[in-house]
Amino acid sequence: MTPPHIPTRREALRLGVYGSALGAVGLTAGCGSEADATGARALRIAQKSEPTGLDPHLESGLDGMNVLINIFDMLTERDAEGELVPRLASGWEAIDEHRWRFRLREDVVFHNGEVFDARSVKFSIERLIDPETASTIVELRAVDHVEIIDDHTVDLVMADPDPVIPEKVSLFGGAMLPPRHFAEVGAERFAAQPVGTGPFRFVSWRKAQLLRLEANEEHWNGRPAFDELHFTAMPNPASALAGIQSDVIDMVSALDPEAALQLEGYKDVELAKYPGIRMYFVVLDTQHEILRDVRVRRALNHAVDVPLLIEAVLNDSGREAATIVPQEAFGHDPDVPAFARDPGEARQLLAEAGHADGFTLRFTSSNEDQLVCEALAGMLGEIGVQLDLELLEPGTFAERLSAEDPSSLGSMYLTGSTGWTLDGGATLQSYVRSDRKRSRIRSERADAMMDTIEQSIDPDVRLEALHEMQQWLHEEAPFLFLYQADLDFATNGEIQWEPNVNGTLAMETAR
Amino acid sequence: MSPSRRRLLRTAGVRLLSSLGVLWAAVTIVFVLSRASGDPVALLLPEDADATQIAQMQATLGLDRPLIIQYLDYLGGLLRLDLGESLLYKEPVTSLILERLPATGLLALSALLITVVAAFLAGSVAALRRGSAVDRLVMGAVLVGQSTPAFWVGILLVLLFGVQLQVLPAAGYGTLAHLVLPAVTLAIFSVAVVARLLRSSLVEVMGQDHVRTARAKGAGELRVLLGHGLRNASLPVITVLGLELGALLGGAILTEQIFNWPGIGRLTIDAISFRDFPLVQGTVVLFAVTFVVVNLLVDLSYAVIDPRVRSEA
């Protein structure tokens, strides 16, 4: 038998494909030509994910906002101390319950030269609330329309009263777009080449690789110190570590405590913790046959050693919380005490409630918080309360959180909530009023307090209601009060910048 | 047309139809499973969205329509090569995939090239020196390669070459240097599989009559290996290489995650974690098409390489 002839076609084909693919990479590398050659000073930031797009009305994720807040200015902003201060709006006031008036800065232009004025505000906010836009930003739902008073004054006319509108236009929903330019290019091209008034201009974006911004020389608040901002998505903390050590990345934002621990102790890596506002707490089902007894709920609170949890599980990245309103938020009541850590007291309360032999509860959480849940299970186990843990994939957990059927989350569930508006009502609204899906509280008194918090525009009245609410929560203990998470950053040690308490990467102040 | 030719065409036609059946099954299974995994709106909207906003978003995305309508709609789109629009990125799935495809293709093909070269070298050396210390060493290394998870190898390579020695970039994309570590990581498992197979196949072939005849006619050992041994031993190897190309695409999901490689793998992970149905379906269709096409090509290549297969077809 003659040996078969080896065809060269296959090899040739394979080599051909390989060769052309290689060529394609060469090409992209060529036209990318990262700025290093030009000598521009770039700040290279890695975060978990990149924006899903650059239309600020379609982006409700924090990683996306971290990019957009550098391209677009909002109407208001939080300063380093967490105070709400003017940004594109120079001042604001509530005319009545249905009308918020904003006065605007007069020296602002968009990156394309278009002037920022009252029409920009009307266009931006009315586009956001238009159902056609299909925006995922829900904060401005109470706004009905915008009225132009003069070139630099607008009124947000409300369908329902909303006392925290000025806070809500400091981030999502507050981004100002150029109406004339938008009309010319359309939504799609606008999102591909966004134009704002912000401290950095958009340069280019190669998806999953690099998003580049450059300093806006004409920014009304002065030119930022860095010539360029580079954003890269690095979902894997090990990549981020290697990135800092091999000088590909200057800064990694929003590390979770475990990832931060991985980075500890490496030369050339500097870790920084800043106070953050994300609250973690366990929602107890106050309708549950055992948990409906307030003594049981208090017992659980006495059994959990929060400082130990923070030290052992979170690597000290958090602050104990006595309530679910962050310390920095409007309405936080510093006089509400944390429950004393006292397993003896806890056991006695359980015995009084008729549960001296303990019991078992079903406990649901996202598997991202597995370590915290296991620590809680250990601590509650010491007073005879067994937890039947159900750890879910984050998507499934998120879905059950908004499901109609409350029993899908068991008799208790762990949740984290970021009320970025820094208003005490932000966290409370989803977890307290009896008609909200995540709430396991059925109390007319709590509902009445929530109505005041959500609808009154008098700050003093709201403050009083917020304090009363937090004291009531301490009494009733419908939650296991846990902690307020820190913001963890890693840098190469050469960047001078501090996040404000909402943690967004507004980089105009970076040096 | 000769009868044998007609038979070949008929076989090809049947294979093509069954491939379409496989694709349809893959699409349907993914459609059903992804719908069963839950509602993406919970992930797209922030936590304090109210019922009206949730209903509105579902209507906008077409998720409030009956499942069967969504399914037929999707199949109809597929026939027009329209994979729908990503819920997360609000862009056509086709353009998202095309954007990322070159990076994954480059990675998988580089890994395949490494596999072919390294596996043929290792397999041949081991087979020719069967039973020697070299054989045991090579096969030992291969066993380690086959039993080590790619993500672990990847992390070790990053630590060694990226962080300690700083000779290769630890992550990123753009130059040949960026390609080295991920391609090697991805190739290691395939190299091991193919090298082992090639060794045993070669050992068998080298003992056959025609090889002895060639040796007896005075052909040198290298000539015997190239002209007789490898040529005959490569048939099973091609089957496995075909399967490995599929495995390489799958392995790219992990490798791309480790090396921050901007390919289909990372896109798929994002799509899954956000329940971006159209995008998940799109990437699955892509993987299924690749597998089906590679299998077809492998089958056809038999006929070209081995005349026995051709005459039987």
Largest interface: A-B, 58 and 70 residues
What is the rounded Rg of chain B?
Answer: 24 Å
Determine the fraction of residues in helical runs of chain B and give it as a percent range: over 70%
Number of helices of chain B: 13
Percentage of residues assigned to helices of chain A: 25-40%
Sequence of secondary-structure elements of chain B: HHHHHHHHHHHHH
Number of strands of chain A: 17
Shape of chain B: flat
Structural class of chain A: alpha+beta
Strand count, sense and barrel status of the largest sheet of chain B are: none
Radius of gyration of chain A: 26 Å
What's the short version?
The complex is a heterodimer of chains A (511) and B (313). Chain A has 511 residues and is an alpha+beta fold.
Describe this structure in words.
The complex is a heterodimer of chains A (511) and B (313). The longest helix of chain A has 24 residues, at 9-32. Chain A is built from 15 helices and 17 strands. Chain A has helices at residues 9-32, 62-71, 118-129, 165-168, 179-192, 237-245, 257-263, 294-303, 306-312, 343-352, 370-381, 394-401, 425-431, 444-455, 459-476, and strands at 42-47, 76-78, 84-86, 89-96, 99-104, 143-150, 153-158, 200-206, 210-215, 228-233, 251-255, 270-284, 318-320, 359-366, 385-392, 412-418, 479-491. In chain A, strands 1, 8, 9, 10, 11, 12, 13, 14, 15, 16 and 17 form an eleven-stranded mixed β-sheet that branches. With 511 residues, chain A is an alpha+beta fold. Chain B has 313 residues and is mainly alpha-helical. Chain B has helices at 3-36, 41-44, 51-61, 67-79, 93-128, 133-147, 150-164, 176-206, 209-216, 221-259, 264-273, 277-305, 307-312. The radius of gyration of chain B is 24 Å and the shape is flat. The mean pLDDT of chain B is 84. Chains A and B meet through α1, α6, α12 and α13 of A and α2, α3, α5, α7 and α10 of B. Chain B: Belongs to the binding-protein-dependent transport system permease family. Chain B: It is a multi-pass membrane protein. Chain B: Keywords: Cell membrane, Membrane, Transmembrane, Transmembrane helix, Transport.
